[in-house]
Design goal:
The structure holds 2 protein chains of 2 kinds. Chain A is an alpha+beta fold. Chain A has helices at residues 2-8, 19-45, 50-54, 132-139, 143-174, 180-191, 195-208, 215-219, 226-237, 241-249, 254-265, 267-283, 286-291, 300-306, 315-341, and strands spanning 63-65, 67-68, 77-82, 91-98, 101-106, 109-117, 121-123, 125-127. In chain A, helix 6 packs across helix 9, helix 10 (241-249) packs antiparallel against helix 11 and helix 12 (267-283) runs antiparallel to helix 15 (315-341). A 6-stranded mixed sheet of chain B has the order 6-7-8-3-9-10, with helices on both faces. Classes of the chains: A alpha+beta, B alpha+beta. Chain A: Belongs to the binding-protein-dependent transport system permease family. Chain A: Residues 147-336 form the ABC transmembrane type-1 domain.
Chain lengths: 350, 382
């Protein structure tokens, strides 16, 4: 913790701040604001009620009207502070509102209804997160099903991606065969083809295989990614051939060389690809939208989309679900990112 | 390292004879190995030496099975192994870069090969411990290669070869990444290892000192061809051609060109050198090259047949002195004197080659001229 503090408060000037310190801190603060601002706004907004979300101008913190339970009234009544008229300065509970008039009672005398002008009162509010947004997700919407669908698709697809891509990358990096250059060029060429171009043919192929509207229809078509093959191949090129030769002399089969030598040595690149693949799959929207049609197969991203109706959007649920959808990816990144920078392949030689 | 007499119960001694029959190797149109014939006897320490690019490493990789053979035959223990994959040949190799598995501990590095041979676990542990103790790396067994020094990595690489109990050890310039002091030390260790295990060993180096000090037999290679095969001193004392004469020995042999004139040699700088009769077969008028090692050139007072040269540089090592000079014809000669010398740069020296230590070569073909032509050709072919 002391290290973090020392790191975050590091300055160029000794004792007092050099002008470059001001400049860098201002620049960094701007960066933090630009990057974290929307996320923080999203998280805070997910705790706001629908009424609060519709409010203009918006407020940063989630407020909820203060209510009071009074005798003779079944529902809790919202509290108001009266600003003008005979009751000025008092806090009253509103029973109902009719046109421009508001019928209120004083908490001390719950039976005595007073009529005041609507303009003469302001609501009494306090900061209160609307946790019901989240509760609704689990009660009214089948959040866990979508969560499971997304998790299953993400994890399975990532596992298949890593296996298939690393095998292809190994062959392209470490074996000499006729046409290797052409295959590598093809892979790099595919990198340049945008997904939307192949969307229709991909849909037709998936349909012919009967994989539409099933998780496999989402998992299989994107399993082999040219980016992954290229990334892993470039990394595997840095593994010295002599290590592979040594393993061959040690009577290791080619599969064993791949599994016991090349894969562990490619761990940093594989971690990078794992993070990328998890993020791609978790956040993927367009292809699942095309491939999945029944709502019980929906991923979280599709479920999010279904909150957005033609007439009305349930922002409160939408925002809460967005936060829950963001969390796993953020956690994965937080735990795996340290592997990105670690390289161990070059330490076995001289 | 322990001494040769100690028991090594878990390391059995398997060894084999290696034969190469007219072995060639081409990469596309480029022929890198041109018909090598060679036999390495069982238990022999054979060193391939040659300048970089001569094909010695390629030849070693062909023996190991990591590189295939374009034509010819490789036999190990009498069996043709051309189409046997590297893993099945029962050989072990020590690589120039050591090629340790960086993600495995030393223990795992040593046991990986045995695991692949489906050796029982208990036996693997015993063999690894024993080899580690022998190579003095037993306290490093749980470290990763990156935590070891160059010399320790070298020992692990050798240990990885030893645990496999190979029929033949192959070394590919194993000492070239070590500093000079460690290199001398490891040279001794590998020699002792050979004395102890008694396996056939094939060792590739570009360093003729390593070749001279370790080999039972040296194979000098150039441009994918064997120039000469022989015991170290045999190569030093009677090189078959100009290349071997220049390659073996440090500093290199001095070469002076000239012509035969009535049984004597007239050098291009006009000076005459007496050649012992009967030792060489000489034809009048033939263009020959005189080879004489730096320690066989003796500075003398001005004489008729002596060589006249101007000193250009002096290296005083205390125990030895090397003098570099240039003859009147512009040929560089070097001179090795025991002890310290009082010659100075710019001094004129007169040199007399030791008549018993002269080498004569045909300038055109480079082949050594000797009185006995049969011996000549056998040394060439071997």
């Amino acid at each position: 913790m002391a290290n973090v503090t020392a790191f975050l408060t590091r300055t160029r000037g000794r004792g007092r701040l050099h002008w470059t310190d001001w400049a860098s801190y201002a620049y960094l603060a701007l960066g933090v604001f630009l990057m974290f601002g929307p996320v923080i706004w999203l998280v805070v907004s997910s705790f706001k009620t629908q009424a609060e979300l519709d409010r203009f101008p918006p407020r940063f913190l989630p407020y909820a009207p203060e209510t009071v339970q009074l005798d003779g009234h079944a529902e809790p009544l919202p509290l108001f502070r009266v600003t003008d008229g005979p009751l000025a300065g008092e806090t009253v509970a509103q029973v109902r509102r009719i046109g421009l008039t508001s019928q209120v009672v004083r908490p001390e005398a719950p039976g005595e209804v007073v009529k005041i002008n609507r303009a003469d009162r302001v609501p009494v509010e306090r900061v209160k997160p609307a946790l019901e947004n989240y509760r609704t997700l689990f009660e009214r919407f089948d959040f866990m099903r979508y969560f499971w669908n997304s998790t299953f698709i993400t994890l399975t697809a990532t596992a298949i991606t890593l296996l298939v891509n690393s095998m292809a990358a190994f062959a392209l990096a470490k074996y000499e065969f006729r046409g290797r250059g052409a295959v590598v060029a093809l892979v790099i060429g595919v990198l340049m083809v945008p997904q939307s171009v192949v969307l229709v043919p991909l849909f037709m192929v998936t349909r012919e295989f009967g994989m539409l509207d099933s998780p496999w229809g989402v998992i299989i078509p994107g399993a082999a990614t040219p980016t992954g093959v290229f990334l892993l191949r470039q990394y595997m090129l840095t593994i010295p051939d002599e290590i592979l030769d040594a393993a061959r002399m040690d009577k290791a089969s080619e599969w064993k060389i791949f599994w016991r030598i090349v894969l562990p040595l490619s761990a940093p690149a594989i971690a990078v690809l794992a993070i990328l693949s998890i993020m791609w799959r978790w956040n993927d929207f367009l292809w699942p939208l095309i491939a999945l049609s029944r709502s019980e197969n929906y991923t979280l991203q599709l479920a999010l989309n279904s909150f957005q109706g033609e007439m009305r959007t349930e922002w409160s649920s939408l925002l809460a679900m967005t936060v829950l959808t963001l969390l796993p990816v953020a956690l994965v990144f937080a735990f795996l990112q340290k592997y990105i920078a670690t390289g161990i392949a070059s330490t076995g030689g001289k | 390292m322990t001494t040769a007499g100690e028991q090594t119960p878990h390391i059995s001694r398997r060894t084999a004879r290696l034969e190469l029959r007219n072995v060639t190797k081409s990469f596309g149109k480029a022929e890198v190995i041109r018909g090598v014939d060679l036999t390495v006897e069982q238990g022999e320490f054979c060193v391939f030496v040659g300048p970089s690019g001569c094909g010695k490493s390629t030849l070693l990789r062909m023996i190991s099975g990591l590189e295939n053979v374009t034509a010819g035959e490789i036999r190990i223990g009498g069996d043709v192994v051309n189409d046997v994959p590297a893993a099945e040949r029962g050989l072990a190799m020590v690589f120039q870069s050591y090629a340790l598995y960086p993600h495995m501990s030393v223990r795992q590095n040593l046991s990986f090969g045995l695991e692949n041979l489906r050796t029982p676990r208990g036996q693997i542990a015993e063999t690894v411990e024993e080899v580690a103790a022998m190579l003095q790396i037993d306290m490093l067994l749980d470290r990763r290669p990156k935590d070891l020094s160059g010399g320790q990595r070298q020992r692990v690489a050798i240990g990885r070869a030893v645990v496999r109990e190979p029929r033949i050890f192959l070394f590919d310039e194993p000492l070239s990444n070590l500093d000079a002091e460690l290199r001398v030390e490891m040279r001794g260790e590998i020699s002792r290892l050979h004395a102890r295990l008694g396996n056939t060993m094939v060792y590739v180096t570009h360093d003729q000192v390593e070749a001279m000090t370790m080999a039972d037999r040296i194979v000098v290679l150039r441009d994918g061809q064997v120039e000469q095969v022989g015991a170290p001193l045999e190569l030093y004392n009677s090189p078959a051609n100009l290349f071997v004469a220049g390659f073996i020995g440090s500093p290199r042999m001095n070469f002076l060109t000239g012509r035969v004139e009535a049984g004597r040699l007239r050098l291009d700088n006009g000076q005459m050198v007496d050649v012992p009769h009967g030792k060489f077969s000489l034809e009048d008028g033939a263009a020959v090259t005189l080879g004489v090692r730096p320690n066989h050139l003796i500075p003398v007072a001005e004489t008729v047949s002596g060589l006249h040269a101007t000193v250009r540089g002096i290296e005083q090592l205390g125990g030895d002195s090397y003098v570099h000079a240039v003859t009147a014809a512009g040929e560089a000669v070097s001179l090795h004197r025991p002890g310290q010398t009082d010659l100075t740069v710019g001094a004129e020296v007169y040199l007399e080659p030791d008549p018993d230590q002269l080498h004569l070569f045909d300038t055109a073909t480079g082949r050594a001229l000797r009185a006995d032509p049969a011996r000549d050709s056998s040394a060439e072919k071997s």
